Amino acid sequence: MITVEGLTKTYGGFRAVDDVSFVAQPGRVTGFLGPNGAGKTTTMRIMVGLTPPTQGRVTIGGHAYQDIPNPGRHVGVLLDASAQHAGRTGREVLTIGARTMGLPDSRVDEILEMVSLTPAEAKRRVRNYSLGMRQRLGVAHALLGDPSVLILDEPANGLDPAGIRWMRGLLKGYADRGGTVLLSSHLLHEVEQIADEMILIGRGRIVAQGDKKTLLSGQAASSLVTSLDNDALARALTAAGHSASPAGEGLRVDCETAEVGRAALAAGVVLTDLRSGAAGLEDLFLELTADTQREGHPAAATAQGGAA
Amino acid sequence: MSTTTPPVQPAAPSGALDISSTPRVPFGRLVRVEVRKSLDTRAGRWFAGSIVALCLAIVLITAFAAPDAAQDLGFFLSVSGATLGYFLPILLILMVTSEWSQRTGLVTFTLEPHRARVVGAKFCAGLLLGLGLIVLAFAIGALGNVIAGGAWDVETGTLVNGVIVANLIGIVLGFAIGMLLMNSPAAIVAYFIYTLVLPIAVGILGAFQEWFADLAPWIEFNTAQASLFEGDAVPTGEELGQLLVSGFIWLVVPFAVGLWRLLRAEPK
Per the CB < 8 Å rule, is B22 touching A74? Predict the structure, then answer.
């Protein structure tokens, strides 16, 4: 379990992390989500004692990181997969970690297999690794000491689709066995699919947290519907007290999909497409972090046809 | 792709970590890892190997080129030891700066968050490596003497001051510069300026200004160390004073400031 309490970090007048509090529970994958420069990495660096906080504190399983003896055996950390000596082989990087933690060298082979790095790849120097291979090596390093807590900064960065799926399975399985996983990302899709719990951060502050359902519960209901007779359906919906407006080939209605279905059934209109039109997590995320996005207001960016 | 993993350590229901059965990383293990880290890259191995090769080459050249009368064991030991002395500090510099230049500090200081222990282990590892190289340099010097057929005379001063003490100073100096600058190229350039350019500049100044020639050994460490290489001579009280004063300026102060900086720096 990772507990962050009132964490603040200022650099001069700049508040990189501003009164951040959250808990990452065991048995769950907690996603730490925010645009670039939102303070995710700084928060994680403070967690493992690389950066001293200005205020607040972090405990991992009830202890300050500095108080955990041989921390590699309890907390697996990946902060930057590229932060390895370019001249070392992948195997050597892991061997150094294993030796420091007091693990047998056979553990290195085990973990290489687990992250699907072949013996030939392990013999290559890190400078010749692709970003995806570095990520695998970094994850291998984090898992080396068989820790019960994982702290991973952008672990899916640079992985191909198969690699991302593999990472998802690995972390999910890890949490299912009781481990605590905190991972950061600036890519919503990555986190949405894997995280049980999400923490949205923008400009150093937490803007929302909770599971997907809680996060979206505040959103107004909305449905998108297409039928063989949109005019008749619109009349029926208006009669039922909903407001319907044309949207593309169909209608946008301000109610749940069930209500639309009911009105269509009563009016005897054949539906060809019916789905929730509620703003997804992405819209929520962009809305909440709007003032921190470099692209300005997301609505403006969307209107120009490009996602912010 | 396999996703099978060994079971995660059973976490207490509260999520608390049970750290009672985990001992901290023993210091000796940290030292062994640091020794390994300085030799496990091609650059590290070649650098250490090159120092030894260079000692060998220079000793062999001297064995054939120097006048026979000058050649005895002491002479060869000082030649070999002086060659080592030029390059040994760079090995120490790289031990420290690679954590920052290669950014491995992120991992190193996460696996052992008590940075002072890492620094201590690194220093011990540097001493061990340095002593190993001094022993090798001795062997090479002896080999040169065998080839040259020189006398087996050695003055204690040469052995202790000129080779061992001078190289130990070099080890501490390299470590201090590494901690102070935390950047490989900058630290190496600074080292060469300190060890090659500075004494020459001081010498030139001293040649023109007599008062400066008197002052130089007090404020310039290289100049002060010259007394270490004067054969059997035990440094006089004045020479020892000069060593201590200039050593404080060029060794103790940089070491203390560097240590302070390194313990506080944020590895990026």
Answer: yes
Give the H or E element holding residue A151: strand A149-153
Q: How do the domains of chain A map onto residue ranges? A: 2-216, 220-276
Chain A nearest CA to B244, separation (Å):
36
Chain A residues 174-233 with CB within 8 Å of chain B: 174, 177-180
Q: Is A127 on the interface with B (CB under 8 A)?
A: no
Query: Within a domain: residue B8?
Result: no
B3 contacts in A (CB within 8 Å)? 166, 169-170, 173
Q: Nearest CA to A90 among A156, A153, A135, A155?
A: A135
**Residue B203, domain member (yes or no):** yes
**Do B93 and B191 meet the contact criterion of CB atoms below 8 Å apart?**
yes
**Reported ipTM:** 0.88
Q: Which residues pair with A30 in a beta bridge?
A: A182, A197
At A116-148, the pLDDT tens digits run: 999 999 999 999 999 999 999 999 999 999 999
Q: Which CATH number fits domain A220-276: 3.30.70, 2.60.40, 3.40.50, 3.40.1000?
A: 3.30.70
* Domain A2-216 grouped into CATH 1.10.630.10: no
Q: How far apart are CA B86 and CA B93, in angstroms?
A: 12
Q: Which domain holds residue B101?
A: 27-258
Tens-place pLDDT, residues B67-115:
777 788 988 998 999 999 999 999 999 999 999 999 999 999 999 999 9
Tally the domains of chain B.
1
